[in-house]
Design brief:
80 residues, 2 domains, 44% helix, 2 helices
Length: 80
């Protein structure tokens, strides 16, 4: 059976309040000062404009951020 929750009881996780910055002011500006976690988008542009390069850079930045968080989580578990 489903249970309903009052809107006032819903807690929005902190990650949705911290936009991820791309480092490109123009791109960040399009998304209102960064990309919110869970956002999906389609990037279109002419051939050779750097779509794949931009994607590779973003993946590298966010992968590094996730690895750091995973290490911090692991260390807090073994220290605690």
């Amino acid at each position: 059976m489903s249970s309903f929750q009052s809107v006032s009881e819903i807690v929005i996780p902190e990650k949705y309040h911290r936009p991820l910055l791309t480092g490109d002011p123009k791109v960040d500006g399009i998304f209102g000062n960064g990309i919110i976690a869970g956002t999906s988008m389609t990037l279109t542009a002419v051939a050779g404009s750097g779509k794949c390069h931009h994607q590779d850079e973003e993946i590298e930045i966010y992968a590094d951020e996730k690895i750091i968080k995973d290490i911090e989580r692991f260390l807090s578990k073994i220290a605690g």
